[in-house]
Design goal:
By secondary structure, the protein is mainly alpha-helical. It contains 11 helices and no strands. The radius of gyration is 20 Å and the shape is elongated.
Amino acid sequence: SKAITYTEFLKDVIRERKVIKESDINEISVFLSKWDLLPQNSLLFSLIGDYYRTLNKCNKAYFYYIKAFENVVKIKNDNSMLVSLCKKAVDCGFKLGRLSECLEFLDITEAHLPSTDFENLSQIWFQKATIKLKLKDYDSAFKEIESIETHIAGEDFLRYIDLEILKYTLYKETGNQRKAVDILKSLKSKIPETDIDMNLLINSYFL
């Protein structure tokens, strides 16, 4: 079918980092506007977004990720694609400064996820906390962090470090320098001396 042909074409373009004509993208867009194909249209819109992202055309990528997102929410039980699309849309939206829209994507995605899907939910909460920090909505950011801390797995050390650094930034921005420094000291005590890169990262925050 045409949908499969277009899918393979776009995957090849992205893989080989080719640059194609706008008319090629327009042809696929016209096809998608005529046929309501789920989940193929979500995948194709997402691939067009991926293509523009490889060209650092964030505005265009964002436009197509939104189209893909609008379609994927119609599909029941496709949480992996929903979360993946949400992440892509939020990454672009964040770069474009469209923070309120990013929060809407995250809220919609959270509402579609099962309350037991802590793996994906914790990623959503982390992104929400990061955006709320940027918006200076500090109380809400701390609440998102509390949600993650309730469910974070003890063995997931890298995610724990990301979370602690986010908390450090929040405390620093809200003027609680002592708590910020305490977080860094606690992190430093838990990182092996042999992990040079991680120690350099934590030390950079002391500067």
